[in-house]
Amino acid sequence: MTHRSDLHAGRFALGTRLRLCASARVRRLGMLAAAVLVCSGAWLAWPGPVLASSGPVEATAAPAAAAPSAAAPSAAAPSAGRLDETPRMAILSAFAPELELLRARLRDARVHTVQGVDFFTGQLEGRPVVLALSGISMVNAAMNTQLLFDRFRVTHLIFSGIAGGVNPELHIGDVSVPERWGQYLEVVMMREIAPGQYRAPASKGEFDFPPYGMMQPRAVRVRQAEGAGIQEKFWFEVDPQMLAVARSVQAVPLRGCDRQDRCLDKRPRLVVGGSGVSGQAFVDNADFRRYAFRTFRANVLDMESAACAQVAWRAGVPFIAFRSLSDLAGGGPGENEMNAFLHIAADNAAQVLLAFLRAWRD
């Protein structure tokens, strides 16, 4: 039997919880979800406090105890500042298959999770490195490159991944190491003044490249961290010393067949030099491919490298990118080839990067 005093006590406790929902303490959370959670606890008589966080949750991890390439689970870490003070070469890839071979070779691995991004520190070819995924496309790449610079002591930045081939002399599986990167989709969308004729506002100044229809490529306005003022810049050059080392590792065994023994028509090769361009579009168009080669003399076209190059230029961090052709950006005879040759291209880019690390001298 329930006594009246028990009912009174229960009602009092319930009323207390409900009043808490309207209190300034809950209002200070600034989150409707938190208020709903407290109120739900009142109705269901859930015990225990509701905890509020004033910032993002970040984590680090202890060293791996299993296989040399395994990363340990994460644990609590400070909410700001560097997570590691060791000077490291940073290696980025856009998505998981591009980083697979490098992750497998990583020794003494530790994982640090920052704002949902996993950073893997350890040794690669005997060198201290930090590996991470930039995410696909330009904004993700720029944002996570800066996050990397903020939380680690990055001495050099390297990108490893796949790309669409633009130069008709290159083939699927080839690895391109451009000496400069530009953003082909930094454009003015011009006014059509007559059928098929376009004009940019005079206020936008002069342009260095011919347009593609209504799209007029232009430089970006940038400022270096230690620079005196704003400048207009289209090309972001890779580090000359890193490029010279890349030229010295020509004898790299590159894959010509996939894991199902499907082989390429031509043996892959390493090509160092030329240009690369990036933009927030997946290109599968033969006409635009011809335009990109003719206009920018580009070997490859991707969705991240120029963004990383710009952030590295601003920070004064030496940069280089290894990009292997997974497809011909619309220049092939049939369906886009990326899904068929993704793993060959990703592994070839990673193999050249590993050879680069072995050849590097501090």
Automatic annotation (TrEMBL):
<dbReference type="InterPro" id="IPR035994">
    <property type="entry name" value="Nucleoside_phosphorylase_sf"/>
</dbReference>
<protein>
    <submittedName>
        <fullName>5'-methylthioadenosine/S-adenosylhomocysteine nucleosidase</fullName>
    </submittedName>
</protein>
<feature type="domain" description="Nucleoside phosphorylase">
    <location>
        <begin position="89"/>
        <end position="358"/>
    </location>
</feature>
<dbReference type="GO" id="GO:0003824">
    <property type="term" value="F:catalytic activity"/>
</dbReference>
<dbReference type="GO" id="GO:0009116">
    <property type="term" value="P:nucleoside metabolic process"/>
</dbReference>
<dbReference type="InterPro" id="IPR000845">
    <property type="entry name" value="Nucleoside_phosphorylase_d"/>
</dbReference>
<dbReference type="Pfam" id="PF01048">
    <property type="entry name" value="PNP_UDP_1"/>
</dbReference>
